[in-house]
Amino acid sequence: MEKTTNHKAWFLVLPVLLLVAFSAIIPLMTVVNYSVQDTFGNNQFFWAGLEWFDEMLSSERMWDALWRQMIFSAVILAIEVPLGILIALNMPKGGFWASFCLVLMSLPLLIPWNVVGTIWQIFGRVDIGLLGYTLDALGIDYNYTQNVADAWITVIVMDVWHWTSLVALLAYAGLQSIPDAFYQAAKIDQASRWKVFRYIELPKMAGVLMIAILLRFMDSFMIYTEPFVVTGGGPGNATTFLSIDLVKMALGQFDLGPAAAFSIMYFLVILLISWVFYTVMTNLDRKGN
């Protein structure tokens, strides 16, 4: 008997497709349209071709922002992933304290990004902030609004405080999926703590760690609200990341054509690096299995 296909099931997907088209595809096409045109006001546009892309590729300003962004994302991943794994390994496996730790780790993730920036902006001030006042009392010259190193340290510590919990919770979920029989076999074989981690826990966490790394990379590479609220991109352009530079170009200078080309290149860089991350980690996971 020949099996029939019910094509009416596509109607169930139609609302999602319309939502994606409205929230993503249509705005993207608008940006593409602006990136190949120029305007002199009065809603009159003129074909510019790839002029804005060529201008952005030769822009020292964009390359400087890109390097700052790459360094920031690399530092964030180098700190948050190992720290999240370490926290997950030391969390209780069950009972009241496990639930307590899970709730405690989830709290930073519930705070809106602009509120996080405001908290650390006040926290780091020398006159009224606990951190700034304490460092000043200890004789440490700390001022994130004037010192480049202090601004970078503040933004990095703020992001680590805000998002390490995500890595820890994902790693903890991976650890919880490991059967007790694995640990019992390792105990019988008198395996060291490092070998248990290397050959049992780390392979089982590989899948969730890949998700954690991808999420943290994409989010750190697109970060805007927190550093903008704390430092405004300063001092100078020290913490002017790609997103902040893009907003300044689009809204501050109203250079719609260059900003549109910039945003498309920004999107393609994120897409490319995320694909590289995914490909490399998938291949490593296959070799491990």
Write a brief structural summary.
The chain is mostly helical and 289 residues long. It is 74% helix and 2% strand. It is built from twelve helices and two strands, in the order αββααααααααααα.
Which short descriptors sum up this protein?
about 290 residues, 12 helices
Please give a structural write-up:
It is a single chain. The chain is an all-alpha fold and 289 residues long. Helices cover 74% and strands 2% of the residues. It is built from twelve helices and two strands, in the order H-E-E-H-H-H-H-H-H-H-H-H-H-H. The chain has helices at 10-35, 51-57, 60-89, 96-110, 113-123, 130-137, 148-176, 180-188, 193-221, 225-230, 242-252, 256-288; strands spanning 37-39, 45-47. It has a two-stranded antiparallel ribbon with strand order 1-2. Strand 1 (37-39) and strand 2 (45-47) form a beta hairpin. It is globular. The two termini are 41 Å apart.
Strand content: under 5%
* General shape: globular
Terminal Cα span: 41 Å
Helix content: over 70%
> How many β-strand runs?
2
Regarding quaternary structure, how should these chains be classified? Answer: single chain
Structure classification: mainly alpha
Number of helices: 12
**Overall mean pLDDT:** 86
The biggest sheet, with number of strands, parallel, antiparallel or mixed sense and barrel status, is: 2 strands, antiparallel
Q: Round the Cα radius of gyration to an integer and report it.
A: 24 Å
Q: How is the largest sheet built, in terms of strand order?
A: 1-2
